[in-house]
Amino acid sequence: MNQEVTRIVVLTGAGISAESGLATFRGDDGLWEGHRVEDVATPEAFARDPGLVHQFYNARRAKLEEVKPNAAHLALARLDAEWPGELLVVTQNVDDLHERAGSKRLIHMHGENKKAWCLRCDERFAWTGAMGLDAECRACGTAGGLRPDIVWFGEMPYEMERIEDALRECDLFASIGTSGAVYPAAGFVQTARYCGAMTVEMNLEPSQGSIFFDEVRIGPASDVVPTWVE
Ligand code: BJW
Question: Which NCBIfam families would you find in this protein's record (predicted)?
């Protein structure tokens, strides 16, 4: 890593977890397990058919028990432990592979599938196993008001102020395994670059935002991320 770099922001997307066995969103047919993402990842979809949305996230939550962090998650955790400057990993992923790898300075901007959000009392808390229409809130004790703590289309991603501050102040912005199709995350590279940061993309193929990066490293995350961290 360049010695003049002190502050680093890393953005990760579904591609970093692909080699752990978790599906990405925009594959060849643009579908995920037979669903259009927009049909299960909007507040309107949840209002229309909460059972289907719970099913979608329950299946993905169960899958998390079968997978483990890969070399890319572990390399970022190593960077977190050893980097003497400021580091912030901002993930769009709702899996828990970064924390299981050991990353500490981490923001889940699109929420976490292992958390529930009670719409009755507004509490958020850890959740394992299936969540259903009759699930009971552990804080207020009422049933029927729980949803996965996920940021859906049309909702405000979490900790945007802290992320924007870090983007404005960083010397290096790295984007790993994201298609650059979803905002505001897709615009982070432009903010960081405008404020003077070096920018690097690591992805299996050029993304929609590749032209905004100073450097593009093409390859599987488990190869390119450990090489970049060293
Ligand atoms: C590998 C690999 C390997 C594979 N190694 N790489 C019109 C224009 C502009 C914006 C909008 C618009 N209309 C609406 C909007 C806003 C909307 C939006 O962006 N829509 C787009 C579809 C255009 N955004 C929102 O609504 C957001 N909120 C918002 O904007 O609030 C207002 C606001 C205003 C001002 C400031 C701030 C906010 C909320 C977005 C919520 C996204 N939610 C989802 C689903 C929930 C989470 C979940 O279920 O998991 O989040 S959508 C889905 O996409 C998920 C992901 O986090 C997100 C990004 O996907 P990601 O991670 O990039 O995955 P893929 O599959 O797309 O790409 C994987 C990449 O990896 C590929 O490139 C592969 O090649 C690569 N890869 N294997 C390395 N081994």
Answer: PRK00481.1-5
pTM to 2 decimals? Answer: 0.97
Q: Is the CB of 148 under 6 A from ligand 1?
A: no
Residue 144 alpha carbon to ligand 1 centre in Å: 28
As averages over each run of 10 residues, the pLDDT of the chain (230 residues) reads 84 96 76 72 94 93 97 98 96 98 98 97 96 93 96 97 98 97 97 97 96 98 97
Ligand-binding site membership of 92 (annotated): yes
Q: How many whole angstroms from 27 Cα to the centroid of ligand 1?
A: 13
Q: For residues 186 and 163, give the distance between their C-alpha atoms in angstroms, rounded to a whole number.
A: 13
> CA 79, 82, 84, 88 torsion: positive or negative?
positive
Which residues does 148 contact at the CB level (< 8 Å), separation at least 6? 53, 54, 57, 61, 94, 111, 113, 115, 116, 117, 127, 131
Domain that holds residue 44: 27-66+111-150
Same domain for 168 and 208? yes
Interface pTM, i.e. ipTM: 0.97
pLDDT at residue 2 in the model: 62
Ligand 1, closest atom to CA 221? 5
